[in-house]
């Protein structure tokens, strides 16, 4: 079977199975790179792809500068594709079945207090000086993610009707494809009320979406990432990426450092598996040790 037809058949199958648009795009991009690599190396049929071809491509990715996590993600996409080819009886055995994931030294960067204050102060200055909607919007993007750990796709699709000011909660259509409720603190509730009032005065009406572009239409994933890319260039923080996910990690980090239980963190982060939560908690083990040394109840006992 020709690779290009097999690839399209696989994408059609993912679409039929109601895979999210984000995942479909990931398959198109990440798996598409592998398909193109094979074609460029004159391997045009699925049946002709060997483990050697797959390993050669992954080594090529490493040589391009792809980190272990990125290579592993590409390998997982390849596994899904070849497993589907096995199911369809196009091939008997997946050529990537015995290729193991790379060991990945995961280090998640988070913002410190000074960096957070610097970013928020930057937008506050612009808002005061120019009464800019975009500055206030970008300020609130940070506040909402830091206050809830909300995901990128969720914040793009967040509507005013999803916010329950009375019960201080936000409803989102989460990663698990179901409605989930996030609690809001009183401080975040007040911030969102003030922002809503500003939006009504600025636009003369209330948009369906909480965050919009300059043209009053719903903010897109591309424009959201541009906002954080621009902020990153302005801040020029060393060794840390300014992105929605870094703010989400910061939210998780602060929960762990506060002494909150892993179970409670899992619920707030909405991890399907608590093992994911425990992986994050383990990353900050040294900081937890310092906190334990400082606040352990045995410190105040004369024993």
Automatic annotation (TrEMBL):
<dbReference type="GO" id="GO:0003677">
    <property type="term" value="F:DNA binding"/>
</dbReference>
<dbReference type="InterPro" id="IPR025269">
    <property type="entry name" value="SAM-like_dom"/>
</dbReference>
<keyword id="KW-0233">DNA recombination</keyword>
<feature type="domain" description="Tyr recombinase">
    <location>
        <begin position="106"/>
        <end position="293"/>
    </location>
</feature>
<dbReference type="InterPro" id="IPR010998">
    <property type="entry name" value="Integrase_recombinase_N"/>
</dbReference>
<dbReference type="InterPro" id="IPR002104">
    <property type="entry name" value="Integrase_catalytic"/>
</dbReference>
<dbReference type="InterPro" id="IPR044068">
    <property type="entry name" value="CB"/>
</dbReference>
<dbReference type="Pfam" id="PF00589">
    <property type="entry name" value="Phage_integrase"/>
</dbReference>
<feature type="domain" description="Core-binding (CB)">
    <location>
        <begin position="1"/>
        <end position="86"/>
    </location>
</feature>
<comment type="similarity">
    <text>Belongs to the 'phage' integrase family.</text>
</comment>
<dbReference type="GO" id="GO:0015074">
    <property type="term" value="P:DNA integration"/>
</dbReference>
<dbReference type="GO" id="GO:0006310">
    <property type="term" value="P:DNA recombination"/>
</dbReference>
<protein>
    <recommendedName>
        <fullName>Integrase</fullName>
    </recommendedName>
</protein>
<keyword id="KW-0238">DNA-binding</keyword>
<dbReference type="Pfam" id="PF13102">
    <property type="entry name" value="Phage_int_SAM_5"/>
</dbReference>
<dbReference type="InterPro" id="IPR050090">
    <property type="entry name" value="Tyrosine_recombinase_XerCD"/>
</dbReference>
<dbReference type="InterPro" id="IPR011010">
    <property type="entry name" value="DNA_brk_join_enz"/>
</dbReference>
<dbReference type="InterPro" id="IPR013762">
    <property type="entry name" value="Integrase-like_cat_sf"/>
</dbReference>
């Amino acid at each position: 079977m020709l690779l290009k037809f097999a690839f399209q058949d696989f994408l059609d199958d993912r679409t039929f199975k109601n895979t999210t648009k984000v995942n479909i795009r990931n398959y198109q991009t990440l798996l598409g790179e592998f398909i193109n690599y094979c074609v460029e190396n004159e391997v045009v049929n699925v049946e002709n792809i060997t483990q050697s071809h797959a390993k050669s491509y992954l080594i090529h990715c490493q040589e391009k500068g792809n980190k272990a996590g990125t290579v592993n993600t590409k390998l997982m996409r390849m596994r899904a594709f070849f497993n589907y080819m096995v199911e369809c009886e196009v091939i008997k055995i997946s050529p990537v079945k015995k290729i193991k994931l790379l060991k990945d030294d995961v280090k998640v960067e988070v913002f410190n207090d000074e960096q957070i204050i610097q970013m928020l102060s930057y937008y506050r200055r612009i808002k005061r000086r120019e009464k800019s909607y975009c500055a206030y919007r970008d300020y609130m993007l940070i506040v909402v993610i830091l206050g809830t750990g909300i995901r990128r796709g969720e914040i793009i699709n967040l509507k005013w009707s999803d916010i329950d000011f009375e019960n201080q909660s936000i409803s989102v259509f989460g990663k698990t494809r179901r409605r989930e409720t996030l609690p809001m603190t009183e401080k975040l509730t007040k911030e969102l009320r003030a922002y809503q009032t500003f939006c009504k005065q600025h636009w003369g009406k209330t948009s369906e979406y909480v965050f919009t572009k300059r043209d009053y239409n719903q903010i897109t994933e591309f424009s959201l990432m541009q906002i954080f890319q621009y902020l990153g260039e302005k801040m020029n923080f060393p060794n840390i990426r300014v992105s929605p996910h870094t703010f989400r990690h910061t939210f998780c980090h602060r929960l762990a450092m506060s002494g909150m239980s892993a179970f409670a963190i899992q619920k707030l982060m909405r991890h399907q598996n608590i093992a994911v939560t425990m992986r994050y908690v383990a990353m900050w083990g040294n900081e937890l040790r310092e906190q334990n040394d400082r606040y352990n109840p045995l410190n105040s006992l004369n024993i």
